[in-house]
Design brief:
The protein is of the alpha/beta class. The strands form 6 sheets. Strands 22-23-1-24 form a 4-stranded mixed beta sheet. The longest helix is centred in the middle third of the chain and has 13 residues. It starts with a strand and ends with a strand. About 1% of the residues have low confidence.
């Protein structure tokens, strides 16, 4: 099993370029199934979840040509509608092929998804919304058996709660539905904007009519397209937090500061000095980190995907801080490992109390999910001595070249087999 060896204490200095967004690439890859034309995608991150999604597309009959600069997808002979558990089990985004398969073929058999063990991710919101477009479905032995006998037909759908995945699935499905679909109470993450931009350039008819409402007029066919995926705001946020934690001095490039303005404002409040430019952010960490209370919430709120990293930073704050996790019910799995490193964090339901003023101590650690893995790296960088982080396959699902990027800015980190 692969593991990471990390030596602290390290002050990160230099420049890091942000890779393409994993969370934007996955729905865009799923949406390529709508087309029989050639689709070229640039700036996809080289991470495990993207590899898995490409394998899933290939299993459905897509022809995928991957060179270093772009991926080309041809679906002119794609006709399969079965997404196997063996491919969907490691990532929740596998469920996103359901919408395009139903839109294109009127039927699909898709495994219920897996991913990180950070809480239930029910697909009932996806399925109930799809049923309003004319889909009939049953869940049998862990698979969604769905069909739309008359094809997809536009409808007015209000999501019972904000769901990124359900919003993406329904946008993609509605693009080929007959007539008009109106989706309300939609998620508005930048990755959804990127998916919509991609679909519009492909020839789909999509408009925002209010902050959380989208109108989609179904089209009969879509165009050939060459598209560049947006940068990864979670990766950018992770490196900004790393700089704040280690009294670092980093230039983070290839990212629009506007899409992480909430995170930047919070880092300023805890004491980091930040200068924003057109496509880069300069950050200087402070010796004194101020305490703060945070709750995770849908965009434009503070992202659940940066909660674990922020918790590490707040362990070094001058006073007690609180984090309320309002997205997933099991996203404090990193707490036990941080406490083994000297942190003083207590959990009461969905609220974490972080004592602050602690000195991290190096330890052997176990990663439990994607964002928890990276939080342990941050804590190890702020600890004196050698830490070992086990089960880093989670990390490889979402961070491209993390050791290489961190080494370049002064971290002592290496992978062990």
């Amino acid at each position: 099993m692969k593991k990471l060896e990390v030596f602290g204490v390290a002050k990160l200095k230099g420049q890091i370029r942000i890779s393409g967004s994993k969370n934007a690439s996955l729905p865009i890859l799923a949406a390529t199934l709508l087309s029989d034309k050639i689709i070229s995608l640039r700036n996809l991150p080289k991470v495990k979840d993207i590899e898995t999604m490409i394998l899933l597309l290939k299993s459905l009959g897509s022809i995928v040509d991957d060179n270093k600069k772009k991926i080309t997808i041809k679906n002119n002979k794609q006709s399969k509608t079965f997404a196997a558990y063996s491919l969907v089990k490691t990532m929740r985004a596998g469920i996103l092929v359901l919408g395009p398969l139903l839109a294109k073929f009127g039927k699909a058999k898709v495994s219920l998804p897996g991913g990180c063990a950070i809480g239930t991710r029910p697909v009932d919101i996806h399925l109930k919304a799809l049923s309003k477009l004319g889909v009939k479905y049953k869940i049998i032995q862990g698979y969604v058996h769905a069909d739309a006998p008359k094809g997809l037909i536009g409808a007015n759908i209000k999501f019972p709660k904000i769901s990124v995945g359900a919003t993406e699935n329904l946008i993609i499905a509605a693009c080929l539905a007959k007539g008009k679909t109106v989706l309300s109470n939609c998620a508005i993450e930048p990755e959804i904007e990127d998916l919509i931009n991609f679909l519009i350039k492909m020839g789909c008819n999509i408009k925002w009519t209010s902050k959380r409402t989208i109108k989609i007029e179904g089209v009969a066919k879509v165009n050939e397209l060459n598209y560049q995926v947006m940068p990864d705001r979670i990766e950018a946020g992770t490196y900004l937090i790393a700089a704040a934690l280690t009294e670092g001095n980093l230039k983070v490039t290839g990212i629009d500061p506007k899409i992480i303005s909430t995170e930047i404002n919070i880092l300023k409040k805890v004491g980091a000095k930040i200068i924003q430019k057109k496509n880069e952010i300069l950050i200087k960490g402070s010796k004194k980190i101020k305490s703060i209370n945070i709750k995770t919430s849908p965009y434009p709120g503070f992202p659940t995907d940066l909660q674990a990293q922020m918790m590490v930073l707040l362990c070094k704050a001058n006073k007690k801080s609180y984090i309320k996790e309002e997205i997933f019910e099991n996203r404090f799995m990193h707490v036990a490992e941080l406490n083994r490193m000297g942190a003083k964090i207590s959990i009461n339901g969905n609220k974490a109390t972080i004592e602050g003023n602690i000195k991290f101590e190096a330890a052997e650690l176990m990663a439990t999910d994607l964002r928890a893995s990276v939080s342990l790296i941050l804590a190890a960088l702020a600890s004196k001595g050698k830490s070992i982080i086990n089960r880093i396959y989670h990390l490889d699902r979402g961070y491209e070249d993390i050791e290489k990027k961190l080494k370049k800015v002064g971290a002592k980190i290496r992978r062990l087999n």
